[in-house]
Amino acid sequence: MYYILVYGTAGITACLVLIRIAWTGFKDPYGTFQWTARERPPDCLKDPSLGHHGYLKGRSSGLRFHYVTKGDHRKPLMLFLHGFPENWYSWRYQLQEFSSNYHTVALDLRGCGDSDAPVPLEEYSLDTLLYDIRDTIDELGHTSCILVGHDWGGMLAWHFALERPDMVQRLIVMNAPHPASWLDAVLRRPSQLLRSGHACFFQLPMLPEIVLSLEDFKLVRSLFCGKNLGIRNKARRLTETQLEGYLYWLSQPGGLTGPLNYFRSLLSNTLYKHQDIGVPCMLIWGEADNILVEGMSGGTRPYLRGPVVIHTIPECSHWVQQDQPERVNKYIWDFVLDKDIIKHNH
Fold it and tell me: What is the mean pLDDT of residues 240-244?
């Protein structure tokens, strides 16, 4: 039933997208089928105040991973996992904020940013991606971490906490449902899958890469800056330079395939485990998220048997750590400094 819903939605979405492309292409063929590969990274990606750039080699994969780090490496590790279609830069507000107490590291996930991007879809299996996280923690000289994830990074964080609770001191997830609650919500209300029609559309080969590139990445721009999907906080809306911090890597040849392979692999081939998370966990959810299905935050609670804190932020978009960084940072400080989280559990 789940696969029928996913691929049925993919077909419906593809038809609608193709009709729109035909219409815009008819009106402005040159502008529609035009996009530019950026020649040099924008200055924001080289800002030294955000931290030092480094590379590590995954022991399991042999791939090279890029990361940005700030803070003393002898302090506890706080590892950040970004979502789609982002890179390490989405954690710029948190890298600086928590570097006083932690060894903060924002990783470019496999296939994203300046990390290696294997082409075959099997290179993006769940087990492979979880090995990347384990190898990163090991290569950085730590045995465990405070794991922070958003969007697909949040989904990986949920799974990693299930598989390796010994390596996760505390889990912080933003706008990413527990994998089992996602499946439950979709099967209970199949109509909600249309709200995440993009995730189903991305199952298709080649076409999503073309669609996302049209009109110089207009759809990607609308994700971050559009009225319905983009960052709501006027003071934190992306500047053109900050937007280029994402478009630079996505515009490179094959730059969209790696990020899209997360959808193709995890959404279509993963049988989500109905397991409970035992590590202390905090879920932060922007209530104005028009990308994920409704009700995801509340649906996660039954799968958390350890201490749990859930915060919802009204008028906050899917890009929660960029939209409301001060509020998100306060929630994180309260959570990580709480020595007796069970006492304060609510």
Answer: 98
